[in-house]
Write a structure and sequence with these properties.
The chain is mostly helical. It has helices at residues 11-15, 20-34, 55-75, 125-139, 149-155, 159-167, 169-176, 182-185, 239-250, 262-275, 306-312, 315-323, 337-351, 356-361, 363-367, 381-391, 396-406, 412-433, 444-460, 466-478, 485-497, 505-512, 514-526; strands at residues 41-47, 79-85, 145-148, 191-193, 208-210, 215-219, 225-229, 235-237, 257-258, 284-285. A three-stranded parallel beta sheet has the order 1-2-3. Helix 6 packs across helix 9 (239-250), helix 7 (169-176) packs antiparallel against helix 10 (262-275) and helix 9 (239-250) packs across helix 10 (262-275).
Length: 528
């Protein structure tokens, strides 16, 4: 295991932290001052097992864990994070990305834990996806307690809550009915009975209710009137009541949700209060946007999957991206990855010299739960991409050679950190940079500057400093009287690298070699 930076912090230092997880933790503390409770403080995230875990699952668990750790440091209290699967929901539609989808058609509206597994590996579709969820969360080292909706209903652990919901039926209906359409009002009930004949989750009205007996009467698909207890898994709750019931039954203290669930959060909070409970603390985060600034849709597939991100960068870089500005809509596409990688390592590097609240507000503390790595790579991810581009090779040994030349005294741990980025750089370059390269011919002014730069680099040779090379680049541009020196750099990048942006030339030339850089310029000028 790589060495970590170990620091201890007092509650007073934690109280001075201003990053959003600490602000959220402070809000939770105020809630707990109103709601006295013993035992662990309960954090929760939800999962719908009709689909596989995705980047939204990651960001919700990661962000909740950040608040949880901040809260623990502030209070010293025991906590638990519940990952709750809504696996008693009926199958609403057949997912398009499963094998043999026709086999699921007969099971529409059947609870997901009673729907066959199309993958053929588990006893039900929900069991398969729940297993994928746990493996997904374990992959990232999250600390959580898994809970199944079906198990909670059928075991009786939700019984007291269900009886309370039946007792407060009219109040709950008065909360929900004004928020739904006239047609749906005719059949709406917070209770969804499980048909004793078909096993389906039925969206039917309750014909009779007996709170004292804990029973309801409904019309089954056969037309027969059926009396059933609301306990023991004979019914489940409809979405907004279900969310509220879960909060009430499990004593959830903190849960966040997407901004698309803002109204649902408010409504479920009102239902909890009607039951006699206190809704959890939390906030509604903004959803990610695609490359065109449109909301990401799982149906359209216009976003980036977590598997795709992890093809090109580390999970820590993704954790940084979800840490930053959670209440702001952000583009989540491939072009944000290099910046996220380099920003992550910048924060890790800064953490070593930070104390007190500044260290606690550093994203690295939150991403690594207080133990960021001690070693950082000697080069940036952007620099690796430029080295691949300029050298025409992603051979790991060639790239390691460049790095050792640049930082001959770099410790083994730092070189190992760079190794972790080399394969990512190769993949990212091949997929996104190489196909987009467009070289152009130099204009007269650029040609003069590039010829001068090439000559100067040959004079300097390979053993000068970054500053020497950077000065040579500036001098070549100034000699051609560029009014805006950025135009000179842009022209250099487009002619030599085939892209409108590029590396800091001093550092790049030091790593790549002055003579090799001069050859690259000469080849660009000779290119037709």
């Amino acid at each position: 295991m790589a060495a970590a930076v170990e620091k201890s912090f007092s509650a007073e230092e934690a109280a001075a932290a201003k990053s959003w997880p600490f602000q959220e933790a402070q809000r939770l503390i105020k809630r707990l001052e109103r709601v006295k409770k013993d035992g662990p403080v309960v954090f929760e995230t939800g999962y719908g097992p009709s689909g596989l875990p995705h980047i939204g699952t990651f960001q919700e668990v990661a962000r909740t864990t950040m608040v949880r750790r901040a809260f623990e440091l502030l209070t010293g209290r025991e906590t638990v994070l519940i990952s709750f699967s809504d696996d008693m929901d009926g199958l609403r539609k057949v997912p398009p990305n499963v094998p043999n989808p026709e086999k699921l058609e007969p099971f529409l509206d059947i609870p997901l834990t009673k729907t066959p597994d199309p993958f053929g590996t588990h006893e039900s579709f929900a069991h398969h996806n729940n297993a994928r969820l746990r493996a997904f969360l374990d992959q990232f080292g999250f600390d959580y307690q898994f809970m199944s909706s079906t198990e909670e209903y059928e075991s009786g652990r939700f019984d007291a809550m269900l009886l309370r919901m039946l007792e407060k039926y009219d109040e709950v209906m008065n909360i929900i009915l004004p928020t739904i359409g006239d047609e749906r009002k005719q059949t709406y009930s917070p209770f969804l009975p499980i048909s004793p004949t078909s096993g389906k989750v039925l969206y039917v009205p309750m014909l009779e209710r007996d709170a004292a007996a804990g029973t309801v009467v409904f019309e089954d698909e056969t037309g027969e009137k059926v009396k059933t207890p609301v306990t023991g898994g004979a019914v489940k709750l409809q979405w907004k009541a279900d969310w509220a019931g879960r909060w009430f039954a499990l004593g959830v203290d903190y849960e966040m949700a997407g901004e698309d669930l803002t109204e649902s959060t408010k409504l479920s909070s009102r239902i909890v209060r009607a039951l006699g409970g206190e809704p959890p603390e939390g906030f509604n985060y903004q959803l990610f946007l695609d490359e065109h600034g449109k909301k990401i849709s799982k149906t359209k597939g216009n976003g980036i999957s977590i598997e795709e991100w992890l093809t090109y960068a580390s999970p820590e870089s993704l954790a940084l991206y979800v840490f930053q500005a959670p209440k702001k809509a952000k583009k989540l596409y491939f072009d944000v990855i290099p910046k996220a990688v380099d920003e992550y390592w910048t924060f890790v590097e800064k953490y070593k010299d930070q104390d007190s609240a500044k260290a606690l507000d550093n994203p690295a503390w939150h991403i690594h739960e207080g133990r960021p790595p001690a070693a950082t790579p000697p080069v940036s991810f952007a620099m690796l991409l430029n080295l691949v581009s300029a050298s025409g090779s992603a051979d790991p040994e060639i790239l390691r050679g460049f790095i050792r030349k640049y930082r001959p005294d770099a410790p083994t741990e730092e070189l190992a950190a760079a190794d972790g980025m080399i394969e990512f750089a190769e993949r990212y370059f091949d997929r996104f940079i190489k196909p987009a390269k467009v070289y152009r011919a130099a204009n007269e002014k650029e040609r003069a500057a590039l010829e001068a730069l090439s000559s100067r680099l040959k004079e300097l040779g390979d053993d000068k400093s970054e500053d020497d090379y950077q000065t040579a680049v500036f001098d070549a541009g100034k000699a051609q009287a560029y009014e805006n020196i950025r135009d000179w750099f842009k022209g250099l990048y487009e002619v030599v690298f085939g892209q409108s942006e590029g590396p800091r030339m001093g550092a790049f030339t030091k790593i790549f070699g002055a003579n090799a850089m001069a050859r690259l310029i000469d080849e660009a000028l000779a290119r037709r």
